[in-house]
Amino acid sequence: MKKWWIRPSIRVFSAFFLPILVPGIITLFIWALPGDPASNICPPEQCDTAILAKEFNLDQGAWVFFSDWLFEAFGGDFGRSWRVMQGVEIQELLGDAFPNTVLLLLFSLIPITIGAVLGSLEVIRSKWDPILIIVGVVPVVVLALISAAIVEINYAGSNLDVQANWARICMGAITLGFADAAFSGSLIGFRDTCTQEKNQRYVGVSILRGETVLSNTLPNVSNALIGQYRARILHILSGLVIVEVIVGINGVGALLWKGTLTQDFGLVLATATIFAVLSGGLLIVQAILECVVAMHVRKAPSDVRLAESV
Amino acid sequence: MSIKRALGVCTALGVIASAVAVNVQFYDENLPGSLNPLYAESMVDFRAQELYFDRLFYRDPIDNRLDSKIVKRFEMAGATKIRLFLEEGLKWHNGDELTADDICFTIKAIMDPKTTSARAKAFRKSFTDCQVEKNSVAVIEFPEVYHKPISRLNFAVLPKKSFKSTAILPNTEFSTRPVGSGPMSGAKSTSYAIFKAHRDSSHHKPKIDKMRLNQAQDPVVQINTIKGGGMHGIVSVAPPYRPELASSSEVVMKTYDLRSWWFIALNEKNPMLAKKEVRQALNYLIDRNDLREKTIGVKKGDKESPCELISGPFVQSSPYYNRGIPVVERRYEAKAASLLNRAGLEKKGRSWYYNGEQVRLRIGMKETLNKEAPDLLDQIGNQLGEAGFDRLVYKINAEEWTREVISGKASSKYDMVIGKWSFNIDENVNNLFETRGKDKGTRNIFNYSNPEVDAILERFNAARRDSDAKNAYLDLHAKLSDELPYLFLWKLDTKSAWRKEIRSNIIAPYYYFTMIDDWKYSNK
């Protein structure tokens, strides 16, 4: 109990370590692939790989490449795309893609959040669970394909690019928010957690004391609920790549996909690091909330005085 | 409202209507990989680059004549030199003047060994020098006397001012945001490529203001959007959907001559497939009529069939096609069994065994071909399975195809690979069958090597007359139909679909948009 700070500290440490670990692992993969990295950009039969290796800083080994890349990335320079959008600065690509990904993420959190609130307040009883499960049984790929077809049929060929983009983001958010039991899982998960806590003995005692259920249970379930919510967000982040690719949203996930397919390692490093930063950000938020809950739990009540010992 | 005022309003509306830019949108198989002509890898790249750039000389699709939009006239300046006189008023997309300096820069970039481009390598041995005589006069020197020297000048011209040196690498921004002199300017994004009419130069006056290339979606979505008027064209319509579009009154189907033929390449590094009898047996085991019917929907004897069986590395309409070599249309089990026995295979039960082990074939197919011939991979697998061969099937994505299969690195992964080659008018197949070496056999999938075939290909290279070249390739057809490094399948017509509002849209063989200046949009 006294070491409540250990878990948040690990989360904060992980949050700062992830954006270094992820590109490091990717760099190792690049060098682990068969052939030298420059020949993966263009085979020796077609190109002079020695020149390409020098151009992309691939000729001095993995450590030099990684350290140079990391140093420049910290300064905001992710280099240029090697194959997806050759020669274009990756910051420029991310500048166009990142807002779409953030909007998609935020919009898809709406059904998750609604589910969490409804579940916490037990608005929807367990007798509706079969329907909720049916709603959530549709896989994300299927819903994404349907969304893509709807948007394409309605907007293909039109000059309504902005509206089409919004339509894609909304359809993508609906896909992420409901497919694969995202909404239903959030609702049922939060409800079950809160219900279990409510059934604890101390809650009954607190009711007899005239206290509210929420004021007693919330501090105890907060960490679990925060953990669940973070897991939902991570679930959405993992599905985000698929949705962006299928629905045709120009987002960070789509860039990661295209970079992986075309072995554009410059782009893969940058986009994977962005996801690592996002994940790290979530870890920090979770750590902060855990600290707040811990401090609240440990705060002595102000209206209680210890009686003198007899 | 007075008549004068009414007339004024109508005129204004007419001006506004005509001022609204027409944006012609179409689907192509993929987004272009690189817009730098030196780094074109796929047919999508070639088609897009035909809009952004001018080739020095091109073949007119109507009369097959070599023509140029840049060169006003030319003359021989010696046995191995040609003097080009450029048109006046030529401009790049950024407004700079196109001069002889750019022509010579392009040639020097091609010749520069630091230009890491396979296409440049292929052209490199064609030139020795280029000199600028005047602003609009360039003299190109060849290493030897060529029969038709201007046919060697069908490369795109690059702007000197867009590059720091003649060493052009693939990763420059030029590959994404090119500066060309072609009928359209523009760039590609992660989702589409845009093209805007380039009318500031004397040599182009395209009638279409804007175009946009979108990546092909599910064929059903494509069909519905073009019928609904959302999109204007589809570059390649999958065969199962052609009847539906052909019957639409809003859409016109057009032939796109790609001179492409389909094949199954055989890996002779596999000791079993190294035996000619085994390859010949496989040739007799493939029922091409059945495959064609089940995957493309064309039956034997169908009139105006888009799918024509072939027996060698050319389409039947090619002057190089050897009509003396018959096509193996159906399965001949007895013949195949005899050949396999002769090769040392034995049949136990329903399966074939080689050296005591059951034969298993790893078959890969280029993934994009599935849209044109759905389930071809499985159908071929089934036919070989019925014949007694165990098999594993794989789909090969575009990246792996380019990086591994074409570069000859797939020998350890696959025993058979299904693919398609497309050619322009010269149909040079040397790169497919020459023994792989420096600048040779660059598309030899399984590193096939045969000295007799190399000798025939050398004869083709050395030919000074068309008849010599033709005879060499006729012999090649005969030789390859016996050696069978490939099982030759068919030629499948590529059909495009364009809405009827797009008029005068002549589709050039291979490059597609060569005549884009004449295309126009009219909704009358």
Describe this structure in words.
The complex is a heterodimer of chains A (310) and B (524). Chain A has 310 residues and is mainly alpha-helical. Chain A has helices spanning 6-32, 37-41, 49-55, 62-74, 90-120, 129-136, 140-155, 161-178, 182-198, 201-208, 213-247, 252-261, 265-298. In chain A, 74% of the residues lie in helices and 0% in strands. Chain A starts with 5 loop residues before the first helix and ends in a 12-residue tail after the last helix. Chain B has 524 residues and is of the alpha+beta class. Chain B has two domains: 20-211 and 501-521, Periplasmic binding protein-like II (D-Maltodextrin-Binding Protein, domain 2); 261-494, Dipeptide-binding Protein, Domain 3 (Dipeptide-binding Protein, domain 3). Helices cover 28% and strands 22% of the residues of chain B. Chain B has helices at 3-19, 43-52, 100-111, 118-124, 219-228, 242-246, 276-285, 288-295, 333-342, 369-372, 376-387, 398-405, 430-433, 451-462, 466-483, and strands at 23-28, 58-59, 66-67, 71-76, 81-86, 129-134, 137-141, 184-188, 192-197, 210-215, 233-234, 251-256, 261-266, 307-309, 345-348, 351-354, 357-358, 360-366, 390-396, 416-421, 486-492, 494-499, 502-503, 520-521. In chain B, a hairpin with a 3-residue loop joins strand 8 (184-188) and strand 9. The longest helix of chain B has 18 residues, at 466-483. The interface between A and B is large, with 42 and 45 residues.
